[in-house]
Design goal:
Elements: E1 4-12, H1 17-30, E2 34-40, E3 49-57, E4 70-75, H2 78-84, E5 88-97, H3 104-107, H4 117-124, E6 127-131, H5 133-140, H6 146-158, H7 162-172, H8 175-189
Helix pairs in contact: 1-7, 2-4, 5-6, 5-8, 6-8, 7-8
């Protein structure tokens, strides 16, 4: 990766992409990097597309990742991974939660969910990691911690120590939800 690392986090409203990006930003700040974030909520409360752009390094001028320049795409849902694939660099890394959440046009019968989403992704990229976030979050104790499972997987790719992630989680997540989120994060990291 260059002097600037570009991470695009995509998902559907309610999946916790915003919290994941806040924890990520806190970690890279603690590691001494400048960080910029751009969040787009869209129709997030209605299950719409949500994406966050996280850029860190030295002298970050803009929070926006140029098209085709994301080093890592962290996708909380398969269709969102497919939708944002063109933002990934040629040799970029993609981490995809193996989850299907039907968007409104599919629910209403106006469109079909692409059954070959993962096949298309795998045909276009060499470095694809598929994560069963729902299963791991359920094992950790709360299905709503899929975001932390995925963040745990991302943490291995980035290489920052687990202790820093846990420290930022303690600063960011309400105490009553902390233990289950840490457990989910560690499941994703392992």
């Amino acid at each position: 990766m260059s002097d600037i690392t570009n991470i695009l986090i995509v998902g559907v409203g309610g999946q916790g992409t915003i919290l994941a990006s806040k924890v990520l930003a806190g970690v890279v700040q603690k590691k001494g990097y400048e960080v910029k974030i751009a969040e787009i909520h869209g129709m997030s409360q209605r299950g719409g597309s949500v994406f966050t752009q996280v850029r860190y390094g030295k002298n970050i001028a803009s929070p926006t990742i140029p098209h085709g320049e994301a080093d890592i795409l962290l996708a909380f849902e398969k269709l969102e991974a497919l939708r944002w694939l063109s933002y990934l660099k040629q040799n970029g890394i993609i981490l995809v939660n193996d989850q299907r959440i039907d968007p409104m046009p599919v629910i209403m019968g106006a469109a079909e969910y692409p059954s070959d989403a993962m096949d298309v992704i795998k045909s276009k990229l060499q470095d694809v990691s598929v994560i069963d976030g729902v299963s791991e979050a359920t094992k950790a104790g709360n299905i709503k911690t899929v975001n932390m499972v995925l963040l745990g997987s991302l943490s291995k790719v980035l290489g920052f120590e687990e202790e820093v992630w846990i420290e930022v989680m303690k600063e960011t997540i309400p105490p009553k939800f902390l233990d289950v989120n840490i457990k989910a994060f560690q499941a994703g990291r392992n």
